[in-house]
Amino acid sequence: MSTPKHTIDPAELTRFVSDKLLGGRAIAADEELLLSGLVDSLGVMSLVAHIEDVTGAPVPMQDVILENFATINAIADYVGARA
Amino acid sequence: MDRYLDTHLDHRAHLTPGKDAFVIGQERLSYADLATKSDRLSRQLSHLGVGPGSRVGIFMDKCLDMPVAVYGILKSGAAYVPLDAAAPSARTAGIVEDCSISVIVTQASKAARLEEVVSKTTCLGQIIGADVEGADCTSIDTDAPAPERAPERTPDDHAYILFTSGSTGAPKGMVHTHASGLAYMDMTVALFGLTDQDRMANQSPLHFDMAMLEFFSGISVGATVVMIPEVLTKLPASLSQLMEDAQVTTWYSVPFALIQLAEYGVIDQRDLTRLRWVIFGGAPMSNRHLRQLQTLLPGARFSNSYGPAEANQVTFHHLAPAPHSLHDPVPIGQPCDHTQIKITETGELLIASTAMMEGYWNRDDLNADAFVHLDGQRYYRTGDVVRQAPDGSLQYLGRQDRQVKIRGFRIELDEVELALSTHPALFEVAVQVAKDGLTLEAFVTCVAGQTTTPEDLSAHLRDLLPAPYIPSKIEILDAFERTATGKINREALRKTA
């Protein structure tokens, strides 16, 4: 496995959420993903798997909390803060 | 004296006025406050002309106003109709029209969503909610004077109507009376030995029949109901933290929620020793995850409950640690005391029960098929195929029709296909459960000369159906494989999927 990355590109994450989780619906980086009901529980798990794929580092389940997954920006901040 | 589904509340409020009836996050609602606020709402509803024979909608996320609405509506003599605030507005408007609902109780944060529903209905006259901006809106806390006469009620009055997926394209409503609700309430209190020491997690939304366990059985014994905010069902580690912090003693949900907790809930890092009942139902439980949960929660008892919402709980099976073979389905167990069963030659389970619904709302066509009279008893035809073991316990084997369960949501594949086929570009459609068992997938062909995209079809469905009904994969085919009689070859689709 290559060296883990400590950043995730919000634009790339936006594309993933829009294409894979929202059936093509546009989404803003500061739009509520979970509280809005846009992303369901399977979607959260897809997001976790995607972050692990992109960064090459596991996401501990204790980190899967609202603060870290509320929006695309929150996810990017969380990944950046893991460094 | 006749009993109703709300009769116990005043008694409990008298015994333990200061005790928490419902909590959510840091907010709490005492038994005294629940009794007082629901009385006020019921007086307000009476002034609006609502009473026995009327229906009132509840359009809310989980919040402390929700039990106030439930008990306030029941006290007024009307039946409550939970409206899924996350469902598309056209679907909700259809239910409002079908039930001729003239009053909806809501909350401030839902006012904008409700406006969309209102714009699509003709019968809705009044919206009641705390601090909701907008026309024709009254605060829930208005101190309306008591009506001159208490409403005249009987235990056969309608208490609530729950809507579920219907194979004819429109959702169908299951009408329960006070008598059927009480039969369920009394039976579950005894079955699980519920007491005022219990702190019961309310995971299910109000439009699921499972929420009855906390809203009625729990309140009838003076327990505290810990409401789980919807967002936490997506965050298993936060959910297990809440269960520890709130010292939850009972849990009742569909298996999917428990499987998520088992897989992602870091239960081994939580102190859940107070949890004494883990109850699941509504869909088959996987043996592997059940074993996993039994190992993680050695102090808890596990029970598999079976029963379509039409009949409330019908059977139960209290599971000893790993008594059954890993290869057999988890048994659904013995019929409850208030239930009689028959199994037809084709294996279909028929149920006669005091907790059974009166019938489907406004659907004499469905009611004619749903019930069968045998030996002077009215039996509900479940459509579920079962097998009876030599010890009398039942095993669930599958469905006779095209009803499926997706993460606990009961969905008629026909309803999804009918919604999809309203798209003008489509010629034929077929929807099935994906291999993962957790999502739906759709296959479609286009009308000659027309084109569309999976994104467009998905957007079309989002306007018509709740999120769990939306196929996560939509594939556009040139043509379907056919059977010898010219029908879509669904068997082949299942294999290629």
Unreliable parts of chain A: none
Number of strands of chain A: 0
Shape of chain A: globular
Strand order of the largest sheet of chain B: 4-3-5-6-7
The CATH architecture of chain A can be named as Orthogonal Bundle
Task: Explain what you see.
- The complex is a heterodimer of chains A (83) and B (497).
- By secondary structure, chain A is mainly alpha-helical.
- Chain A has one domain (10-81): Non-ribosomal Peptide Synthetase Peptidyl Carrier Protein, Chain A, CATH 1.10.1200.
- Chain A contains 4 helices and no strands.
- Chain A has helices spanning 10-21, 41-55, 66-69, 72-81.
- The longest helix of chain A has 15 residues, at 41-55.
- The model of chain A has no long low-confidence stretch (mean pLDDT 91).
- In chain B, 28% of the residues lie in helices and 27% in strands.
- Chain B folds into 2 domains: 7-296, Rossmann fold (3-Layer(aba) Sandwich); 403-496, GMP Synthetase, Chain A, domain 3 (2-Layer Sandwich), CATH 3.30.300.
- In chain B, helix 10 (287-296) links the parallel strand 13 and strand 14 (301-306).
- Residues 130-137 of chain B have low confidence and may be disordered.
- In chain B, 48% of the residues are buried.
- In chain B, helix 2 (31-47) crosses helix 3.
- Chain B has 14 helices and 27 strands.
- In chain B, the strands form 7 sheets. In chain B, strands 4-3-5-6-7 form a 5-stranded parallel beta sheet, with helices on one face. Chain B has a 5-stranded mixed beta sheet with strand order 12-13-14-15-16, covered by helices on one side.
- Chain B has 497 residues and is α/β, with parallel strands linked by helices.
- At the A-B interface, helix 2 of A face helix 8 and helix 13 of B.
Which key terms come to mind for this protein?
heterodimer; A: 83 residues; mainly alpha; 4 helices; B: 497 residues; alpha/beta; Rossmann fold; GMP Synthetase, Chain A, domain 3; five-stranded mixed sheet; 27 strands
Question: Secondary structure elements and their pairing?
Answer:
The complex is a heterodimer of chains A (83) and B (497).
Chain A: H1 10-21, H2 41-55, H3 66-69, H4 72-81
Chain B: H1 7-15, E1 20-24, E2 27-30, H2 31-47, E3 55-59, H3 65-76, E4 79-82, H4 89-98, E5 103-107, H5 111-118, E6 126-130, E7 137-138, E8 158-164, E9 172-177, H6 178-191, E10 199-202, H7 212-220, E11 224-227, H8 236-245, E12 250-253, H9 255-264, E13 277-281, H10 287-296, E14 301-306, E15 315-319, E16 334-335, E17 339-343, E18 348-353, E19 359-360, H11 364-370, E20 371-374, E21 377-388, E22 394-399, E23 403-406, E24 409-412, H12 413-420, E25 426-433, E26 440-446, H13 454-462, E27 473-476, H14 490-496
Parallel strand pairs in B: 1-11, 3-4, 3-5, 5-6, 6-7, 10-11, 12-13, 13-14, 26-27
Antiparallel strand pairs in B: 1-2, 8-9, 9-19, 14-15, 15-16, 17-18, 18-21, 20-21, 21-22, 23-24, 25-26
Helix pairs in contact in B: 1-2, 2-3, 4-5, 6-7, 9-10
